[in-house]
Write a structure and sequence with these properties.
6-stranded parallel β-sheet; 13 strands
Length: 369
């Protein structure tokens, strides 16, 4: 980071010998020193009780000591250099916003620094430390929300350049949340007139059909995640007014039949639970000046056994069609919580050890012997 960015003292002049990674081998270590101009902002970077520093230590395999506005990082040359870029990026971020950082923000800075180091030589990075930066989504309530990993970065780029985007991957990768944020940003910028957010009403092993209440009260449990994302990006009064005027419509997939959706952003969430006919029906609703975003997790299909997922089929059929983008998230892209990432990874590993019949999410029932 340049002096104008508030940090000085790149360090790296002190070198030593660290523990051997293999018998007889000595690893070189370097020491990087950083001094930030503003003590308050430095404390935001380091986190409460230096939790951000500890998180970066674990993720990058370095040791870091923070004291006041001063930081010393020790580790292998590549890891120490990457840690320096991470801390400088985080300082630049709090300079712009002045708010506390989450561990997700820290992970995003680590991903950015990793991509930066793989694309540009060290001399070029030193001359322009802010390049490259992940794409971001900006809304009035939330401000700028930047992608936290390369998959989210590719997702935001796909949303901006394609009329129809498929996003597949496990829970916690930000598929729905970023899609809603992008939809809200398009609405606020005047690019579209409506938001239409939908989910197939398929129970995940539970029966909700006999719950009391009118149609909206019965359907709301299925659509609650979309409401949550919407309230994250918009003021509650604007959401409520949009729902009353029809500018924002949240409805089950069945309500899409027979309509042509123009001047709108249309989001279909949990699309792995659509049938082939439902998916074809939904895709053909696209009208002029509209965008469609379809998200789902093929590993969590709740359709009856033997019924093929409309999402899986559509992705296969439409592969390579111009104007359609596709982004696939992996377990390493989970951004909710480190534990969630480990849980998803554990399930992925377990599924690889099963037979083909066990991995099939919708096996046909075998007749009883």
């Amino acid at each position: 980071m340049s002096p104008s960015d508030g940090a000085s003292g790149r360090g790296g002049a002190l070198r030593g010998r660290g523990p051997a990674s293999r018998p007889g081998e000595i690893m070189e270590t370097v020491e990087v020193s950083l001094t930030f101009d503003d003590n308050r902002l430095a404390s935001l970077v380091f986190g409460q009780y230096d939790q951000n520093v500890a998180h970066i230590e674990r993720r990058l395999g370095v040791t870091a000591t923070a004291l006041g506005n001063h930081l010393v990082v020790k580790g292998a040359p590549d890891a120490a250099e990457r840690a320096r870029r991470v801390f400088e990026r985080l300082y630049a971020r709090v300079q712009g916003g002045g708010t506390a950082l989450t561990l997700g923000d820290v992970d995003g800075a680590i991903q950015e620094a990793t991509v930066q180091g793989s694309l540009f030589p060290t001399a070029e990075i030193a001359a322009e430390s802010d390049r490259p930066q992940f794409e971001q989504i900006a809304t009035r309530r939330r401000g700028a929300v930047r992608a936290r990993n390369a998959a989210q970065d590719a997702y935001i780029k796909a949303l901006r350049t394609n009329e129809l985007v498929f996003a597949e991957g496990p829970a916690g990768t930000g598929k729905t949340w970023l899609a809603v944020g992008h939809a809200v940003s398009l609405l606020e910028q005047g690019h579209v007139e409506r938001l239409i957010l939908s989910r197939p009403a398929v129970e995940a092993g539970e029966r909700l059909g006999f719950l009391p209440g009118d149609m909206r009260e019965k359907v709301d449990p299925y659509l609650r995640p979309i409401y949550d994302a919407l309230y994250d990006f918009m003021e509650a009064r604007h959401v409520d007014r949009g729902l009353q005027t029809g500018q924002i419509e949240i409805a089950p997939l069945a309500f899409m039949r027979g309509r042509t959706l123009t001047n709108a952003v249309v989001l279909l969430d949990e699309a792995q639970n659509t049938t082939s006919m439902q998916m074809k029906m939904f895709l053909t609703r696209l009208g002029e000046n509209s965008r469609m975003i379809i998200t789902g997790d093929p590993s969590q299909i709740d359709l009856p056994p033997g019924q093929r997922s409309g999402l899986v089929e559509a992705v296969s059929i439409l592969d390579g069609v111009e104007g359609i983008g596709r982004v696939t998230f992996k377990d390493v892209d989970v951004v909710r919580h480190d534990l969630v990432r480990r849980i998803v990874t554990a399930y992925e590993r377990a599924s690889h050890g099963e037979t083909e019949a066990d991995r099939n999410p919708n096996p046909r029932r075998r007749p009883l012997a």
